[in-house]
Every structure is written in structure tokens, then in C-alpha cells.
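Input sequence (391 aa), recorded before submission:
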Amino acid sequence: MNEVDFKEALQDAGIPTTEAELKKAWEQEVADQGSKLSNTSAYSPFWRIVSALITKPVLWLISLITGTVLPNFFVKTAVDGWLDMLAWAVNLERKQATLAKGSLLFTRGSAAGTLVVDVDTRVQSAAINGHVYELKTTEAGTFADGQYQLAIPVEAVDAGSGFNLAPGYYAILPVPVPGIVQVVNADDWLTSPGDDREPNDQLRLRTRNQFSAVNQYHTDAVYRAMITTFPGVRPDGVFFEHGAPRGPGSANAYVLFEAGVPADEYLATINAYIREQGNHGHGDDLLVMVMPETLHSIELKLWPLANLTAELQTRLQLQVEQFIRAAFRESTTSDYQPTLTAPQARFSFSRLAEELHEQFPRIESLAFTNTDILSELNIPRIQSLKVTLEP
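Predicted structure, C-alpha cell format:
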């Protein structure tokens, strides 16, 4: 977002904005009023009083106007409560944080007899850059006699998008459950993604989109406005495919979810809102789908700095793996800020290598075996990842 210099705008309008300019303006005003005062030096008691009683408060007001009032008059530069009011003016409200909900697959060692997994049983992820994410069961799960596996509903212990981890991340029982030998979040484990309180940049995008959505026709902006009311859907994460993919009047909307992709039921809820509850244009056939994925095998050779202990080398290897997975949207932890894969874009491994060097100074050298990924209307995901420590 380009910065706007509102102080410069005042200056262009001929309004004095510095102490020297204000002093000059006071002197001119005094002269215009016919005053015969001549002692206007910085040591003059009169001008010291003027500076204390008039100039400083005016400078405070200028700072307030240029730093707070004017920026918050516009969607592009408004923040927090000011932006909330601008969004309210176009019938939008900031989306609040939500809990991730889904189910985990529990496996027991013996199928004989029944086994109960209590409500509020906790399951954790491995540490991701120092963060451990935790889910809890929301109801008791009962294995029937002869049943090895059971899906049990869970929800995050706290709100936020960080809990929407990719399959396989939740696998640790901090308190062992007798009889359970494995727990994991399988594919499509999410039924409702967690979401953070909507940040300013995303609310700003939705507010700007709303100006295009206020019309008599169901344009992309109208459908984007409807789809992005659902938690976990970003305004810049909705992509449209036109050209009547299913015949006249049809179009597809592909939604890019961060990290874990929710189960089909979540997309069914969005589609029902648009297709079955009358929220589509006459003759329109819009279908909302998850962004298609392409799977890639990533291989990296890593040379650590000399004289690193075996423990530090292993830690570096794990951190590099997590950084790469974050770039491929498997987690949303805010501590890592790699360039993310995106639809209709080039994913550069040379840039990823540069970012790894910047993030981890203990890397001596590295080399990817992969070439750049050119995405169309799809999102690259990791099929396998191999980071090899080289001597």
C-alpha cells in the first residue's frame, strides 16, 4: 500500500505546518493588523508566549490532523475502529476470530471390547517454530467391539487460523489414553476452519470490493462479497473461472484456503447459501470449489556452518523443513514470512533459497533440485519433502 503524505497535502494547500512557517505567518498577520511591534526575536518574551500559547497547540493539531484524522477518512489508509466505521457505511462488519473445528482419527491397539475416549482429551502438534497447537475432543468417542479406528469431533483450544494445520500435524497425546496407539488429523479433517480477527488489510479489501458490489448485476465483486463473509476465506483468495465451464451462464469460484483445507461439507454450506437460498443472479450457475492442487516432490541439500554440534544441525534441518512447508501454506505461523505459493504465479526456488539464508544464518550453502513452479488456476502443495544435511 502506497503511503500518502497528508502533511504535504496541507503544505500544497498553503497551510503552514512547521514552527518557522507558523512564526512567519503570525508576524505577517501582526503586520497586516497594523501592529508596530518590532521585537520578534526568539528571545522576545512576547514571542515566547505566542509560541507557548498558540504555536505549540497548532502544531499538536496539525500532527493530529495529518497523522490521525485525515488518514482515517479514507479506506486506503484507515485503521482499526476508524476502518470499522467506513466498513459499516457499506454494510460490512469486521469478521471476528473463530475456533477451528473438525475430527481426528483415533486408532487403538486391540479391537477387542469397547473403549471410551473421554471428552476434552487433548491432542497437540509438534512445535512449529516454537508454537504448539492443541485441539480437544468435544464429545466422548466410544469404540465398538471389533472397531480399530474412530473419528472423534474436536475443536481448537483457542481461536485463530494457526490451528488449521495440514493433515498429519496433530499426532501427539500429551496425556496418553490407555489403549490408543495413534491419533492423527487425516485429509479433510476440518469441518470449519479457524480464523483470526479480520486484520485491517483484509477488511480494507472487502470494503473496497463492496463499492463494486453495489449494483443490479451479480458481478465477480458481488459473489466475492458473499463468499468472503464465511470464516477462513480471504478477499484475495477467491479466483473466478469464466467462459461457461458448465454451459451458458455458468462460472466457477475457486477458494484458496490457508494450510488445512476444510471438508466438503464446508464448501457445501457456501454453495447452499449462493445456489439454494436465492443469492445468485437470474440464470447464473456459480459453483464454489476448493482451489485445485498440484503436488510436488521437494528436495534440498543443506550445508550447515562448520563446527555445529549434531543437535544444532538437527534443529536447523527441522527449522528449514518447517520454513519450506510454511511457504507451501501448510501452516500459518506468523514468525515465518516466506514468499507463499499462489495461483497464476511463478514460485521461485532461488527466492526461497535467499529467504532461507536470511532467516537462518547458520546455513553455509544450500541447493534445491527443483525448478520454478508455474501455477495456473491451482495451488502448489508438497507431496514429499526431503532436506539432506551435507558434510
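Checked by second reader. The CA atoms of residues 117 and 177 lie 7 Å apart.
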